[in-house]
Amino acid sequence: MAGKRRGGRARTPDAVTAQVAGGAAVLVPDRERPQAWALVVEGAPQSHVDLAEPDHLGFSYQRRLGHVIDLVAPPGMPLRVLHLGGGALTLARYTAFTRPRSTQQVIEVDSALVDLVRAHLPWDRGWRIKVREGDARAGLAKIPDSWADLVIADVFGGARTPAHLTSAEFLTDVRRVLRAGGDYAANLTDGGALAFLRGQVATVRAAFGEVCVAADPAVLRGRRFGNAVLWAADHDLPVADLTRRVATDPHPGRVEHGQSLTDFVAGAAVVTDATAAPSPPPPPGAFG
């Protein structure tokens, strides 16, 4: 998809548009990185991929999930990773590139989106990435017990996390799929009073022994709608290392853990299938 040359300079390639199950999708070329593209669905940025440098993570939430991938095991150690939600497979590419011989499964409900990504943002055929089309929770139910070292949930429908991927029952199946000592990470969005995020933290804390949250300080103060990354496990988390990495990102963030996270939850109830609701819609102009 490289642009043609005119007068010795590479022309920026044209955007690619398609209709997918989630709505109007656009692959937007990055004018600063010749082989990089952003995936935007219904006006909401979903993924950023640099085909030349798979270890470049352009979006802040992807960088924070990248930090999790870096810190869950010694550098270069292969992992078994289950991705709930595929997008442009940014994190699967990152894992394959930074942890060769990793085995990964991606569950993505939008088959038209998968076709778009396959056609225009192909990945290395030598990478052990298998993409399964279907609902994330239904696909999770088909994964063998103790298969994954890491489960990453990054699922959005219409810029909202579906309700059935927010409950204690959902996390019970996540725990089933994780090996002993495995890790869970999730990308969520919220703003304002942060009732959704507080409920998700309470739910994840009920399922795992250790939890931390990384996000933009303005998001954690309810001043801006945005992403928050949850990391959970039954072992001590490398909170100090994560905090240093997040604080030195191009868009610095903050990590909440321990008592500060308890204070943040402020008595929020655990979410069940009976009480689950999707994440709130982004306000007008949130991604403008």
Structural commentary:
With 288 residues, this protein is an alpha/beta fold. It contains 9 helices and 14 strands. The chain has helices at 60-71, 90-98, 111-120, 136-141, 168-177, 195-207, 217-220, 239-247, 259-265; strands at residues 5-6, 9-10, 16-20, 23-29, 36-41, 44-50, 80-84, 103-108, 128-133, 148-153, 178-190, 210-215, 226-233, 254-257. It has an 8-stranded mixed sheet with strand order 9-8-7-10-11-13-12-14, sandwiched between helices. Strands 3-4-5-6 form a 4-stranded antiparallel sheet, with helices on one face. A hairpin with a 2-residue loop joins strand 3 (16-20) and strand 4. 43% of the residues are buried.
Highlighted features:
single chain, 288 residues, alpha/beta, 8-stranded mixed β-sheet, 4-stranded antiparallel β-sheet, 14 strands, 28% helix, globular, disordered N terminus
For the record, give the distance between the C-alpha atoms at the N and C termini, rounded to a whole number.
26 Å
Q: Which residues sit in consecutive blocks of at least 5 with pLDDT less than 50? A: 1-8
* SSE pattern: EEEEEEHEHEHEHEHEHEHEHEH
The chain-level structural class is: alpha/beta
Largest sheet: 8 strands, mixed
Name the assembly state.
single chain
Strand arrangement, major sheet = 9-8-7-10-11-13-12-14
Q: Which bin fits the share of residues in helices?
A: 25-40%
Taken from the alpha-carbon principal axes, the silhouette is globular
Number of helices: 9
Strand content: 25-35%
Radius of gyration: 18 Å
Q: Please tell me the overall pLDDT.
A: 94
How many β strands by DSSP?
A: 14
